[in-house]
Specification:
By secondary structure, the protein is α/β, with parallel strands linked by helices. The protein has 14 helices and ten strands. It has a four-stranded parallel beta sheet with strand order 2-1-9-10, with helices on both faces.
Length: 312
C-alpha cells in the first residue's frame, strides 16, 4: 500500500518546480492556474525571485502547494493517478495540497485559501510577540510537559509532533524561550528557535482560525478521491463537512504527524511518496518507522522513476 504526502512550510526554495514545468505542460498549467487565481505571477517569484520574499507565509503557502500539484500533474501525465495511493496526508499547509491532489478542492480555490491563510496567520500575532522552537531528543509527552512548565500564564503549546525525537513548541516569545532552557535541563539534545514569523498551531492563532472559517464557508469541498489522514485527527476522513471543520481546527491545533504516519503504517502502508519540494517529510517518515520506504518526488527524473516503478 502507498501513501502520498505533501510538504509544509520550510521546504520552499527558489527554482522549485521549474524543471517540472519545463518538462510537463500539465505541470506548467498548474503554475499558470495559481498565477491566474492570485492575480499575480507567483511563478516568477518561485523561479527567479528573492528567497526572503518567497518565505513570507502568504507566498510560501500557495507556492509550495503549486509545486506539489505540479508534481502531481506530471505524475498523472505518466499514468500515475492519486488513486494509486491508499491515503493522502499533508503537513500543515500540505493538508490543502493533499486535498487538492485528491480533487476535494480546486487548485484555484486552494491557492486563494492558502493566500488568505498565510496572511491571516501572519496578522494574528504582531511580529516579535510570538515564536516557535524545535525540541530535539524529547518525545511528545516530554515536550508537552516542558511547554506547560514554560507557559507561566502565557501561551506555550506543543504544536508539531513531527517524529519520535522532534517536537515543535509555539506561543509567546518569552514562554518559548523559557521552554528552551527547561528542555535542555530535561535532557533535550538541542533546543533551537525556528526562523518563523509567527507562532503557528497554538491558541494565539485564534483570529486566523476565524478568518479561515469564513473563507472556507465560501468554497466547495468535495469528498476526496482518496481518504485524507487529517493533521488534528491522525485518522481518516472523506466527509466534506468534517474536512471544513478540521481545516479550521488545524490553525490552532497540533500537527499530529508522528501519529498520522503511524496510523498509515498500521493500515498496511509500506511506501510513502513525498510529492513536491524538499525531503523533510521523507526524513521524518523514516525516523517514525524504519520499515517504511520514503521517496521524494520533486523533479522530472523522480517522476519518471516513480512511474516506471509503479507500472512494473
Amino acid at each position: 500500500m502507498r501513501a502520498f504526502v505533501f510538504p509544509g512550510q520550510g521546504a520552499q526554495t527558489i527554482g522549485m518546480g521549474q524543471a517540472l514545468a519545463a518538462a510537463y505542460p500539465s505541470a506548467r498549467a498548474v503554475f499558470d492556474e495559481v498565477d491566474e487565481a492570485l492575480g499575480e505571477k507567483l511563478s516568477s517569484l518561485i523561479w527567479e525571485g528573492d528567497i526572503a520574499e518567497l518565505t513570507l507565509t502568504q507566498n510560501a503557502q500557495p507556492a509550495l502547494m503549486a509545486t506539489s500539484l505540479a508534481a502531481m500533474a506530471a505524475l498523472e501525465s505518466e499514468g500515475v493517478d492519486v488513486t494509486a495511493a491508499s491515503f493522502v496526508a499533508g503537513h500543515s499547509l500540505g493538508e490543502y495540497s493533499a486535498l487538492a491532489a485528491a480533487r476535494a478542492l480546486s487548485i484555484a480555490d486552494t491557492a486563494r485559501l492558502l493566500r488568505i491563510r498565510g496572511r491571516a496567520m501572519q496578522e494574528a500575532v504582531p511580529v516579535g510577540i510570538g515564536a516557535m522552537a524545535a525540541l530535539l531528543g524529547l518525545d511528545f509527552e516530554q515536550a508537552r510537559a516542558v511547554a506547560e512548565e514554560a507557559a507561566q500564564g502565557e501561551v506555550c503549546q506543543a504544536a508539531n509532533d513531527n517524529d519520535p525525537g522532534q517536537v515543535v513548541v509555539s506561543g509567546h516569545k518569552a514562554a518559548v524561550e523559557r521552554a528552551l532552557d527547561i528542555a535542555k535541563a530535561k535532557g533535550a539534545k538541542r533546543a533551537i528557535l525556528l526562523p518563523v514569523s509567527a507562532p503557528f498551531h497554538c491558541s494565539l492563532m485564534g483570529p486566523a482560525a476565524d478568518v479561515m472559517a469564513n473563507a472556507l464557508d465560501g468554497v466547495t469541498i468535495n469528498a476526496p478521491a482518496v481518504p485524507l489522514v487529517a493533521n488534528v485527527l491522525a485518522d481518516i476522513t472523506q466527509d466534506p463537512a468534517e474536512i471544513r471543520k478540521l481545516l479550521v481546527a488545524q490553525v490552532t491545533g497540533s500537527v499530529r504527524w508522528r501519529e498520522s504516519v503511524g496510523f498509515m503504517a498500521a493500515q498496511g502502508v509500506t511506501d510513502v511518496y513525498e510529492i513536491g519540494a524538499g525531503k523533510a517529510l521523507s526524513g521524518m517518515v523514516k525516523r517514525i518507522n524504519r520499515d517504511l520506504t520514503a521517496t521524494a518526488i520533486g523533479t522530472p527524473e523522480d517522476v519518471a522513476a516513480m512511474a516506471a516503478a509503479l507500472h512494473e
